[in-house]
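Subject: Protein entry, chain in single-letter code together with its fold tokens

Area: Proteins and the way their chains fold up in space.

Attached in line: The record itself begins immediately under this heading.
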Amino acid sequence: MDDLELARHLAAGAGRILMDLRAAGTHEGKALGAQGDALANAFLMAEVAAHRPDDGVLSEETADTPARLAKSRVWIIDPLDGTREYGEGRSDWAVHVGLAVDGQAVLGAVALPGEDLVLDSDGPPQPLPPMAPVPRLLVSRSRPAHEAVEVAKAIGGELLPMGSAGAKAMAVVRGQAEIYLHSGGQYEWDNCAPVAVAAGAGLHVSRIDGSPLRYNNTSTWLPDLLICRREWAERVLEEVARIGN
């Protein structure tokens, strides 16, 4: 299978494992999240090793090593993005499988198993609907980013709390919101696959200062992220710059 088919296979397979585990009812809460992370990660790591043994891998649930830094191609994986939501029985969690080549997120798949859906970087699932008259900004359920709150005030937007980073990014891809602005810090596995899928759908993707997102770095920390409809990109970036001054 080609890289995109593999990404979809990986994301969908991990999603099925997670749904089956939750349905079994043998774990709950934090214990369910921990077991789900472990089982999904074991599947993903084994499948990447079997299908792309020469590629590098960076996964949230596997100890990192410097070996990936010498690789041009690196699979960047989050076996369960939104552990809290998964453990609570919610649907706003995701599985991320992204491929970075020479530091760029070139393709990916994001599974939303709670909605029986896998989105990939080969274009949007359907044409984007017209934007809402009041722009909708996706934010964390517990700690909305300061910049997102201030941008919403400046543009007359509405804040929409949602769970995982992948769920929020895919809500923009699906036309359920216009803007996902995050400044509270993430790791590469939190957004590599969502960024690839969003870019494939024709959305704007960048850091919140407008600079490009780069992957397979020595430090896996990525401080901020903007995924939005292109019509809003310039205004949002202007407002973020104003807030920072």
Q: What stands out?
A: Residues 143 and 184 are 9 Å apart (CA to CA). The chain has a mean pLDDT of 95.
